[in-house]
Specification:
Helix content: 55-70%
Number of helices: 67
Shape: elongated
Number of strands: 5
Distance between the termini: 132 Å
Length: 1412
């Protein structure tokens, strides 16, 4: 024995549990086995081994050898005595034994055996008996009854021989004739004076023993006593006898079978018998409530188990107690079990409904009986509807059943008979996965055949039984796929409704325990998840196992963690690869539920930015959907519904989905090289226009496209985004302006991204079929032109190409360039002419007069791809690929075959890029030829050029330049293209002057992204302007003789601006930009400061270029950095970044004398006195101006650099210094004014500055070739070279009819009688749409100038004659609206009284005249 014991480990542990079990199972010596069990039990008493581990070990040992139960009971008896002795020394040892005894009761040793061996005090402590005193009293009574009580019988003087003969007759072998037996029994009753009730009782006893003769006995009983009352009373007496705890006899199972047969044959009534069955309903309800309370306390039990060192979650088995559950004398459950075995479902259902919900079915015996019944009933139906391949379906065996009825044959019987049975299971169907599989396949086939007939019944079935049962099945992924094959037949909204009910807090005890265990497990996993590959793999498998059965609250917790800790997104997404299809669908439901949670704020508490949890959730959503096969319709419809409700924050989800699944990025911070690449072909855009290399997006892109098309969401989403973009400002009353701008930008970015995805992914047929017409988009959906044509361009381009190819194919044999040009022009006409007609109702009457509809269509339908070929981008990408080829050839690690394959791929890309560049070049040539033919129809000669330019900016340039970065460059390129094309009646100077007018209003109304785009547009325009400014040769070639640079519009001999005058105009534009930026930087408004800094950053390569302007801006930057460092850190960062870049370019700044020709001192000295007098007169008239001058005098460290300046409301004026003709019109007026440009810090005093500035002014007035905006008359020959920057409209004086050669009438003298009707129409059409932009801009600018006199214009001089002319003009134009530097109508061109923001001065005067 010593040798045998030495082979067993000294102490029972989890690690050696299996070894000890094998050791004990292999022992044949009873004494050694008893000694081994005793040592194990003693370890439990001493606390060396936990009771749970010991009980589970003994349970496994008993499975191998049932004789161990008796040995174990002996050992427990000995341990009881020893623990009582040891308990006097250490009470913990006695408590350890009692805990072990509690767990051993009815698990490894039956309670009756314990009651037989142990004393009552021990049994009471271990809760084996409820009351020690009552048990002792019962034992005494039982002994008294057995040994001392006298047996009494035959009280009715019955003869025992009669009962003997009765037993002999009823228990004879084989079948018997019920009629014969009845006669025999009657004769025995009469002969031996037997009690009929006792006879009936004996018949029932014999029936219990011979159930196989059920038919004979049932007929006998029916003929013997057809009184249900008598039978009920006898059966009630029987059940009462077995219910008596004193006799200790268990209910025979045959009794339940007999009662079930009697009830099935309507020989008894359940209502009469049910009250005599035990336990009572109140006791059953108490048991049920105790189970619920125990389940709610299950977390404490788990914590206690896991608190033991070495304990793991795998040691917890929530099904162990349920599996060991037995009926144990519950007569009601035994009755139900017998009925189910018999197949009497209606009566069994009636009994189950009298008990608490799922109480009866929670017992394994009853659940198994019902499962067998369903298996039998659905056998043939399943074989026919399993949808398995014929090879497998032939192997299906029909289950046997001892039932008296046939299986069902069709779905109607399935609905009426089987579905109630399945609903009775509740969550306990988990015990039979095979039955669940069969049911899922049958239901799926029925739904596919006739969806609407079984739809709601199956939804109820899923809700009540299948999904709750699925929560209790341990990691069955195959069954999960079967469930998904059924669930996917339902629309997403019905699936999500089922998931929502599935996620509700459970009320069933077993489900409560399962949820508690799962939550404990997932918390454990989430605490240990990391980016390590091995950790992700292990965590992913654990998450997959848990999600197979309980995905709802599992994903709810995981998403909560992701929203709090965004660094979990990557590891969690990688660990989801083991999920089932149902789990992925539930994950999407949980995401939507988290997004629509009303308790979570979508913006931060200060309301200026989007909440981090929403950003994290969007990022996770995009990554997960890209990587895994997740159904998309539900999420896409959610975004659409949110847009309908006016909520655009959830567009983050769509943005991330499109970006991750298609590779289309929305980054606004693109480099110039990337934007240039976007103007090329599709391959160039892919290779050079994205930040990251796009891989593995083909399948995901196809998935997204199919989801959109199948659910008809492709175009509705696009239109909803466009409509929401226009409504954001008006629907966000209490939202911070900063957040409104972000929402607008987000909506715009997502719209562009989504639109690009549709145009790239959808076939042109799908695109055209789903996109409404141009007229519908503009008039019915109320979309703006920028969005409308953004959506229409892919279709227009394809239509033109298709028609062009058809026309070329018709003209066989003629492939010359001229033929191609003609075909392309004809194709464009065929496609665009209907659009021209459809766009006219959308344009206002005045806009349609000033702006040609064909020109409008041409502008909005063209792209950068149509205007230029990005040769540098093509060359750059080819060079990159050549470098990759060189690196590939130098690589020695790569396999030769793989290297050759990669090299061939790169070479093919180079070839494709070359061919693509050639195709684009041919396309651009055809477009240019088409536009060359169209240009003569774009601008009418009899329409005011100011109005045309204003409408062009308002309805074309400004909206599109702010749409995207590529559109910003397109607008600049289009303006340059109009100039290079020598477009008739288009003035490049007027257009540029309007663009560089007061940009503060446009800039202040931009969002952050729009400011970036607007800055790119201005920068691209400045590139063109400064290239002409830099080199006179370039100017002479590209500008000198072009119609866009005409200053005197005469048919015979138009006058063009000269180079030096153009340089002065450039100086004016730079000054206007500086003035606008200073106005915004000094405003204190967050949006104005931010946008001005953004635009300044974009303009940095070309503005500022003059020292004085740069210093003025730099001072404002320092002020912003000082004031906003703590208050608004984001502005501080922007200002600091731009300030650093500005300082790095300090060496490139030039003085103004190098930028344009400075005025001579002589002219300044000759006119210093007159200028001084004019200043004094103006000081008396304008108090505000005097205050500004007094402030200027007080600034000892500053100097106002006075140069040529230009009236803010005369932004359309341009000049030409080479004009030798003097003005013959007596009505032409000129006025002199000057500008005070931004301050520059110098050490000169204000007196010195004043004398020098007056000297310069005198000299500038004497020099007639200088550039200025002037209103003085030019009647003398000395002023023949003077040309003021006034664009004079065609008008004649009402007092005299002009001659043909004298039709150069100044704009200030337009005859009201000729142009009155035109002005009224213009006012009516523009007052509503432009009054806000124009008037607010002027007023705000003037107020800002009053608030900032240091950067304002100095007080202008004013002559008496000018005052009279001004007052006259006021009377003539009292209905006119204020002027603007961006948009201006002809009636806004009247000269008004100058204020300090209107002052401008220069000595060079240029006029632009219109002549016939």
């Amino acid at each position: 024995m010593v040798t045998t014991m030495s082979t067993m480990p000294a102490l029972l542990k989890k690690d050696n549990k299996t070894e000890i079990i094998k050791h004990c199972s292999s022992l044949n010596d009873v004494d050694v086995l008893r000694q081994t069990i005793y040592h194990l039990g003693l370890q439990v008493v001493h606390g060396e081994v936990i009771a749970d581990l010991a009980v589970s070990t003994f349970y496994e040992i008993i499975k191998s050898n049932e004789q161990i139960t008796s040995i174990l009971s002996d050992v427990i008896t000995i341990l009881d005595i020893e623990s009582q002795v040891l308990g006097q020394i250490d009470s913990n040892k006695r408590e350890n034994f009692i805990e072990f005894l509690k767990l051993a009761n009815n698990n490894i040793v039956s309670d009756w055996l314990l009651k037989e061996r142990l004393d009552y005090s021990t049994l009471a402590d271990a809760k084996v008996i409820n009351n020690e005193k009552a048990a002792s009293t019962k034992f005494i009574k039982l002994k008294t009854k057995l040994y001392y009580k006298q047996q009494k019988f035959n009280l009715f003087r019955e003869e025992s021989e009669g009962y003997s003969k009765l037993f002999t007759e009823l228990c004879q072998d084989g079948q018997f004739d019920p009629d014969y037996m009845l006669n025999t029994i009657k004769s025995l009753i009469g002969c031996f004076n037997l009690d009929p009730n006792r006879v009936l009782d004996i018949i029932l006893e014999c029936f219990e023993a011979r159930l196989y003769l059920r038919d004979s006995f049932l007929k006998l009983i029916k003929n013997f006593s057809n009184n249900p009352v008598t039978l009920n009373q006898i059966l009630a007496f029987k059940f009462s006898f077995y219910n008596d705890n004193d006799n200790g006899i268990e209910d025979p199972s045959a009794l339940y079978d007999v009662v079930a047969l009697l009830l099935h044959n309507n020989l008894i009534h359940i209502e009469s018998l049910y009250p005599y069955l035990s336990p009572s309903d109140s006791k059953i309800c108490e048991i049920y409530q105790n189970d619920i309370n125990e389940a709610k306390n299950f977390p404490k039990k788990i914590s206690a188990i896991l608190s033991v060192e070495g304990a793991k979650h795998e040691d917890i088995n929530i099904f162990e107690e349920v599996r060991s559950q037995h009926i144990n004398g519950n007569q009601k459950l035994g009755f139900i079990l017998a009925l189910l075995k018999l197949g009497d479902w209606p009566n069994a259902q009636r009994l189950m409904q009298m008990l608490p919900e799922y109480f009866a079915i929670s017992y394994p015996d009853i659940g198994d009986a019902l499962s067998q019944l369903i298996h039998y009933l659905i056998g043939p139906l399943y074989k026919r509807m399993s949808t398995l391949p014929s090879v497998l379906s032939t192997r299906i065996h029909l289950p046997d059943g001892n039932y008296s009825f046939e299986p069902i044959e069709n779905m109607n019987e399935f609905r009426t008979k089987i579905m109630p049975m399945i609903l009775t299971f509740g969550p306990y169907l988990y015990r039979d996965p095979m039955l669940m599989t069969k049911l899922l396949r049958i239901i799926r086939s029925a739904l596919q055949a006739n969806f609407n007939d079984f739809r709601y019944e199956i939804i109820n079935l899923l809700n009540v039984t299948i999904l709750p049962s699925f929560s209790l099945i341990e990691s069955n992924s195959a069954l999960g796929e079967e469930l998904w094959s059924l669930m996917r037949l339902f629309p997403y909204n019905e699936r999500f409704l089922l998931y929502n009910i599935w996620k509700v807090e459970p009320t069933n005890p077993l489900l409560i325990k399962m949820k508690c265990f799962t939550m404990r497990r997932i918390k454990y996993i989430m605490k240990r998840i990391s980016k390590d590959k091995d950790s992700i793999k292990q965590s992913g498998r654990s998450i997959g196992k848990l999600s197979h059965s309980n995905p709802t609250f599992l994903f709810e917790y995981m998403l909560g963690q992701i929203q709090s800790y965004d660094n979990l997104i990557g590891p969690v997404v990688d660990s989801l690869k083991y999920l089932s299809s149902v789990s992925y669908d539930v994950l999407l439901f949980c995401v939507i539920e988290a997004l629509s949670n009303p308790s979570r704020e979508h913006s931060k508490h200060e309301g200026t930015s989007i909440s981090p949890w929403l950003l994290s959730l969007a990022n996770f959503c995009g990554s997960a959907i890209k990587k895994y096969q997740i159904e998309l319709p539900g999420l896409l419809q959610f975004v659409a519904n949110q847009l309908k409700l006016g909520k655009c924050l959830d567009l983050l989800i769509l943005k991330e989905i499109v970006q991750k699944m298609t590779g289309i990025e929305t980054s606004e911070e693109m480099t110039n090289e990337q934007i240039e690449a976007l103007s090329g072909g599709e391959l160039l855009r892919t290779e050079g226009g994205s930040f990251n290399q796009i891989r593995n997006i083909k399948k995901s892109t196809l998935r997204l496209k199919e989801a959109l098309l199948e659910n008809n969401l492709a175009m509705p989403l696009c239109i909803l985004m466009a409509q929401q973009r226009n409504c954001i400002v008006f629907q966000s009353e209490n939202t911070h302006l900063k957040l409104i701008g972000k929402l607008y930008d987000q909506c715009q970015e997502t719209l562009v991204q989504y639109g690009n995805f549709l145009s790239n992914s959808l076939t042109i047929d799908d695109y055209k079929r789903r996109l409404p017409s141009l007229k519908e988009l503009l008039l019915e959906y109320h979309l703006s032109p920028d969005v409308t044509f953004f959506l229409m361009r892919p279709m227009i381009s394809h239509d033109i190409t298709s028609v062009f190819e058809e026309l070329v194919a018709q003209r066989t044999g003629e492939k010359s360039k001229q033929v191609l040009f003609e075909c392309f022009n004809q194709a464009s006409e065929m496609v665009l002419n209907p659009m021209v007609e459809s766009i006219k109702p959308a344009l206002s009457s005045q806009v349609s007069i000033d702006l040609n509809a064909r020109f409008f269509i041409s502008f909005w339908t063209l792209t950068m791809y149509d205007l230029q070929v990005p040769e540098k981008s093509y060359l750059r990408e080819r060079n990159k690929i050549n470098q990759q080829i060189q690196i590939l050839e130098d690589s020695k690690d790569m396999v030769i075959s793989k290297k050759r394959k990669e090299k061939d791929r790169l070479i093919s890309i180079i070839t494709k890029l070359t061919n693509e560049a050639q195709q684009q070049n041919e396309h651009v040539t055809k477009v240019m030829h088409r536009l060359e033919n169209e240009k003569k129809h774009w601008f009418e000669s009899n329409v005011n050029k100011i109005d045309v330019t204003t409408n062009f900016l308002q309805h074309c340039l400004i909206p599109r330049c702010k749409f995207t970065a590529l559109d910003a460059l397109y607008c600049a390129r289009f303006v340059h293209f109009l100039h290079c094309l020598k477009t008739p009646n288009f003035s490049t100077l007027i257009c540029l002057d309007r663009i560089f007018g007061d940009i503060s209003n446009t800039m202040s109304s931009c969002t952050e992204n729009e400011a970036n785009h607007y800055g790119r547009f201005l920068c691209a325009i400045l590139v063109i302007v400064m290239r002409w400014h830099k080199d006179i040769k370039v100017f002479e070639v590209e500008c000198a003789k072009y119609p866009g640079f005409v200053t005197k519009f005469c048919e015979k001999d138009p006058v063009h601006i000269d180079y030096e005058s153009y340089r002065h105009v450039c100086h004016k534009w730079h000054y206007r930009l500086t003035k606008a930026f200073i106005l915004c930087l000094d405003s204190g408004d967050y949006i104005q400061i931010r946008n001005s800094l953004i635009v300044l950053t974009k303009l940095l390569p070309h503005f500022p270029v003059m020292i004085s302007f740069a210093q003025a801006i730099e001072r404002r930057l320092e002020k912003i950095r000082t004031e906003e460092k703590e208050k608004r850190p984001d502005l501080f960062v922007l200002a600091t970044g731009y300030s650093g870049q500005l300082k790095s370019r300090k060496g490139t700044f030039i003085p103004e004398s190098e930028f344009h020709e400075k005025e001579s001192k002589k002219m300044q000295s000759s006119n210093s006195s007159s200028f001084h007098q004019q200043q004094q007169a103006q000081q008396q008239k304008d108090s505000d101006g005097s205050q500004n001058q007094s402030q200027a005098k007080s600034e000892m460290t500053t100097i106002e650099i006075k140069k040529e300046s230009y009236r803010g409301d005369d932004a359309q004026k341009l000049s030409s210094s080479n004009s030798s003709k003097s003005s013959k019109s007596s009505s032409s007026k000129t006025s002199s004014s000057r500008i005070v440009e931004p301050e520059t810090t110098m050490e000169s005093s204000s007196k010195k500055y004043k004398s020098e500035s007056m000297t310069r002014i005198k000299k500038s007035e004497e020099k007639t070739s200088s550039l200025s905006i002037s209103s003085h008359s030019a009647n003398s020959k000395d002023q023949s070279t003077v040309a003021s920057i006034k664009i004079e409209s065609r008008a004649s004086s009402a007092s005299s009819s002009p001659k043909r050669g004298d039709y150069r009438i100044n704009k200030d003298d337009i005859d009201s009688s000729i142009n009155n009707d035109y002005r009224k129409r213009k006012l009516e059409s523009t007052r509503g749409s432009t009054e806000r932009d124009l008037t607010i801009n002027d007023k705000r600018f003037k107020e800002s100038e009053m608030a900032h006199p240091a950067s304002s214009l100095s007080q202008p001089t004013r002559s008496a004659s000018h005052e009279k002319k001004s007052s006259l003009r006021k009377r003539q134009t009292k209905d006119s609206t204020p002027s603007s530097t961006i948009q201006e109508a002809p009636d806004m061109m009247k000269q008004v009284r100058k204020t300090k923001d209107d002052s401008s001065g220069s000595s060079r005067k240029v006029k632009i005249f219109f002549c016939d």
